[in-house]
Design goal:
The protein is mostly beta strands. Among the domains are: 31-114, Immunoglobulin-like, CATH 2.60.40; 465-518, no CATH class. The chain is 8% helix and 46% strand.
């Protein structure tokens, strides 16, 4: 702990010295600058607008507005400048008479007017701008109607954005930011979001995670005129198709209410934005399992069960101009979610249901200060308080019949958690000549109080394996010599034999000899409360150096440290370039070549520290028992205190003492080209290599070859360690265009190959003592992925917003479903069968596998199976009706002259002047998920001892089936929406 805080102090000292040196340098060399803020006609700030100042000699300097719409262009000689400001969807602003005086900066606040294109255009994927490190063509910005076409449900919205980002984020997954902060557990309501940016500026040292896969959510600020909107959406099972994995259609209904208002709080000084919403969803959980009927016959079981969900939230934001150089933004968000019948679905039966209630409160403050003509400082602070409670009946032990069903009591018990998180940022941007220097730091902390009675009632596990063959009357079958014939049985067959022979009154040993009896009992007890704290720090320096007008070199260094692990040498250098070759005498350069390399660290999650502290053998006791003396107590579970009488060893969790932070080395090279008819194409090649990837291992696993337990065994010791490796290659091709008022589209194709020897901290190897056989396909190895979206303005004012996802199958692991090596884990993989006709060999459409692995046999690779492909067409149809008296005409002051060339090579219409919109509008819309009702199945069951091996028992997860969240309630879902604006 001391070294962690020492590292923070050293880093802060270095940054302070750097800031002082820069300040002294700038003080000694005062140079005039142009500064100001860019807003739209409603007073909302415009983030990422490009502002360019050009002197009489044609020399130009450009910058972009920050998250508060502020820009500063430094290093300007006294004189007259032509200032140009542009942003996607807005008319270009031009002022040819801005005077820069000697010795003092000039201020210019710019207001951009939305064009007709802004009303029609819904997605902007940045066209290549010469030597701009943030304007990579692979980035996507979502706003307007295509943002409205995304799901309203925050969980579905998260899944869609992850799909749009693609697998480019490496093994750590996509990283979400909200207004520059690390996102909480849920994203803001979609109606309170202004725009979303994906995969922008991938090698910036400002961010700890990979830029490819970075998703930045920017919420709506207040406006200087009173505006409001209300929305209602409705869905019902009568509009939807039935889930193909459910035999019954359970009641389903979704109702969403939303209202928002913004306006001036103090004229020309402060604005507000307030919104709130509530969602009432009678959702479904789809159970699809293999169970025993009342006569103990194996039978399929499928049912849809109603799982009511209620969630709502409140969002308040105030933006204030404290004085000409200081602005303050304050936000407060409250969200609450409750779910009944949680924890059921797929294999999990209704008896395991529990109730959850989650709440989250977020407070954010952002202060932006123009310290001098060339320096802008931004300070941000976020505090998150969240609570979670879960209640389930744990009076009876749970029953886990592997990949057949999960039954018995709820394993949750009475559990709750409280978390407090804070995040403090301070960033300074300095414009000096051709350099834009940015430096600062981030300090985060979390404090968790967690009360968990998970598995206090115990769980009996039944697995497959070899057992005597029985005839139809459950009598042992023998060969001609009288020897008992053996055969592989499934997990449900072992459970069936257990209940059948218990009814017949057989003794536990007799039941076990006939292939019945539980395989394993796991149970926990002790102190349910665990507390932890964790902090991490990241400091950075980043410089964008415009070496020439068509060449920018970006370099940076980031340093990170955290508590709870001994890994404090986490330096992350970044280097990138952007080059626009050729001459611009005949127009803007149309080709941009980019490249970059960076090191990115993943933090060791506080949740892993929590598990290690909880199951340290003192706070809570956890036992995993496979001895007959305990298992023969089925169907009752012994008390934890009674297990000491059976000399049962405890199972502990720990963090390996040599664990260090995983880090990723990523390099990228891309080519961008502006094509005719306003098309922009880009091709990027990414190579990713992650070292010290997290995995888990049982340090006390039995030695191979029947050598027994290692000396000094005290039970399974499940350790988090950083011994994994990940390699990934990707080719990303993107094409986007803005044809005009009628059509704009974007399409991204990703060719991907990912290999690793672990899929995360909870991945256990098949053989603890042989990690070489673990290197194979990663779960991220989805070979092909295609995403297409955009906006089509049809006749009669109807807008169509399609979003199409197509990808190849995801890999899945194939296991034997047995614990043959006695490590208490069911991770063993079968071997390739030399002779498909040999006894015990299981022949599948994935190959012939031998679950009885002998020494010298080659086991199959990890994630050997390939799941089904995925295809979904999602569409939003909308029609807007305006009403109320039109205000006086006018945009002319900032209208774009006829045929004037816009950014990216597009040309404006002959006249940008348009009739003012009516003050009220009503939008009717229908949103369709999976328009063609295509069945997208989840990855198949990979347990060879399951009767469902090779089959899927659910649709792909997530409301849009993108791989997160619960399975979709309906295969095709339709929601009707109503939106009123004034």
């Amino acid at each position: 702990m001391y070294s962690f805080y020492g590292s923070i102090k050293q880093s802060l000292c270095v940054l302070s010295i750097l800031l002082l040196c820069v300040h002294v340098s700038l003080t000694q060399q005062p140079t005039p600058a142009l500064q100001g803020r860019v807003t739209d006609q409603l007073g909302a700030v415009i983030v990422g607008a490009t502002v360019t100042a050009t002197n009489g000699a044609g020399e130009a300097k450009s910058t972009k507005t920050n998250n508060e719409g502020v820009f500063v262009i430094g290093g300007l000689a006294p004189g007259k400048y032509a200032v140009r400001a542009e942003a996607p969807g807005f008319a270009v602003y031009e002022n040819a008479a801005v005077e820069i005086a000697a010795g003092r900066p000039a201020s210019l606040n710019i207001k951009l007017v939305a064009t007709i294109a802004e009303q029609k255009m819904n997605v902007q994927s940045n066209a290549p701008a010469p030597a701009d490190p943030e304007n990579n063509a692979g980035a996507i910005t979502l706003r307007g109607k295509i943002l409205g076409a995304l799901p309203d449900n925050p969980e579905d919205l998260r899944a869609v954005l992850e799909a749009l980002a693609g697998p480019a984020a490496g093994p750590g997954g996509a990283q979400f930011y909200v207004d520059g902060f690390s996102a909480g557990t849920r994203l803001p309501s979609k109606d309170s979001i202004r725009e979303i940016r994906i995969n922008q500026n991938p090698f910036s040292a400002e961010y700890d995670r990979l830029g490819f896969g970075s998703i930045q959510v920017i919420t709506r600020p207040g406006t200087d005129k009173l505006h409001g909107n209300g929305a209602f959406s409705f869905g019902d099972e009568s509009l939807n198709s039935r889930n193909p994995f459910a035999l019954n259609r359970a009641p389903y209904q979704s109702r969403f209410y939303f209202g928002g208002m913004s306006g001036p709080l103090i004229a020309k000084r402060a604005t507000f934005y307030i919104s709130g919403g509530r969602r009432q969803t009678d959702d479904n959980a789809i159970i699809n399992a293999i169970v025993l009927d009342s006569s103990l016959k194996i039978a399929n079981f499928s049912r849809a069960v109603v799982t009511p969900q209620r969630d709502g939230g409140l969002n308040i934001r105030i933006d204030s101009q404290l004085n000409p150089k200081h602005t303050l933004s304050a936000q407060y968000n409250y969200m609450r979610l409750s779910v009944e019948n949680a924890g059921i679905g797929e294999f999990s039966l209704a008896s395991r249901a529990h109730t959850t209630a989650n709440s989250e409160q977020i407070a954010r403050l952002t202060e932006t200060a123009i310290l001098s003509a060339r320096i802008v400082n931004e300070t941000r602070f976020q505090f998150i308080h969240s609570r979670r409670s879960q209640t389930g009946a744990d009076s009876a032990p749970s029953i886990n019949v592997l990949e057949s069903f999960l039954g018995g009591g709820s394993p949750i018990g009475l559990s709750s958690a409280g978390e407090n998180r804070f995040e403090l940022h301070n960033h300074t941007t300095v414009a000096a000549g051709g350099h834009t220097l940015k430096f600062g730091g981030r300090l985060r902390g979390v404090s968790i109080m967690n009360i968990s009675r998970a598995n206090f009632g115990g769980t009996y596990t039944f697995a497959g394996g070899l057992a005597p063959r029985l005839d139809a009357g459950d009598q042992v079958v023998r060969d001609a010599t009288g020897s008992v014939l053996l055969e592989p049985i499934t997990s449900i067959e072992r459970y069936r034999r257990t209940l059948v022979f218990l009814r017949q009154g057989l003794r536990p040993k007799e039941i076990r000899d006939l292939g019945g009896g539980a395989t394993q009992l796991s149970i926990a007890g002790g102190d349910p409360e665990t507390r932890i704290t964790q902090m991490d720090f990241g400091g950075f320096v980043h410089d964008d150096w415009r070496v020439r007008p068509n060449f920018t070199l970006s370099s940076g260094l980031r340093y990170e440290a955290q508590s709870n692990i001994e890994s404090h040498l986490d330096f992350a250098p970044r280097l990138a370039f952007a080059w626009a070759p050729g001459k611009n005498s005949s127009g803007p350069r149309r080709t941009v070549i980019r490249g970059g390399f960076g090191v990115f660290f993943d933090r060791f999650s506080e949740n892993y520290t929590l598990q290690a502290r909880r199951y340290n053998g003192v706070n809570q006791q956890q036992y995993v028992v496979s001895g007959p003396s305990v298992l023969d107590l089925f169907p009752t579970a012994p008390a934890v205190t009674a297990l000491a009488a059976f000399t049962a060893p405890q199972t502990t969790r720990l963090v390996s003492p040599d664990l260090r932070t995983p880090y990723t080395l990523q390099s990228a090279f891309s080519l961008e080209r502006q094509l005719p008819f306003n098309f922009t194409a880009s091709a990027s090649f990414l190579y990713t290599r992650t070292l010290h990837l997290l995995r888990s291992r049982n340090l006390n696993a039995p030695l191979p070859g029947g050598g027994g337990q290692p000396p000094g065994d005290r039970g399974p010791a499940l350790a988090y360690e950083s011994s994994g490796v990940h390699k990934q290659r990707q080719l990303i091709i993107g094409v986007n265009n803005f044809v005009g008022r009628r059509l704009n589209l974007f399409v991204n194709y990703i060719l991907n190959q990912a290999r690793s020897d672990t899929d995360g901290a909870e991945t256990f190897p098949a053989n603890t003592y042989d990690l070489r056989s673990e290197f194979g396909r990663s779960l991220l190895d989805v070979r092909h992925r295609l995403v297409l979206g955009g906006s089509i303005n049809a006749p009669w004012g109807v807008s169509l917003n399609p979003l199409i996802i197509l990808r190849s199958g995801s890999p899945f692991n194939i296991t034997t479903g047995r614990d043959a090596n006695g490590d208490t884990l069911f991770t063993e993989r079968p071997a390739f069968a030399a002779d498909p006709g040999s006894p015990g060999v299981i022949v599948t459409h994935f190959g012939a596998f031998d679950p009885n692995v002998s020494p010298g046999q080659r086991i199959i690779p990890r994630n050997f199976g390939d799941g089904p492909s995925f295809f979904s067409v999602n569409l939003r149809l909308s029609k807007r009706f305006g009403f109320g008296p039109r205000p006086g005409a006018g945009t002319a002051a900032q209208s774009t002259p006829a045929n004037k060339q816009l950014s990216g090579g597009a040309r404006a219409p002959a006249s940008q002047a348009r009739q003012p919109e009516r003050p009220f509008s009503l939008t009717l819309a229908a949103q369709v998920q999976n328009l063609f009702n295509h069945v997208n199945a989840a990855p198949p069951i990979g347990n060879l001892a399951s009767p469902l091996f090779g089959l899927s028992n659910a649709t792909a997860a997530g409301g849009f089936s993108f791989g997160t969240g619960p399975p979709a309630t309906s295969n095709r879902r339709i929601e009707l929406q109503l939106n009123l604006n004034f």
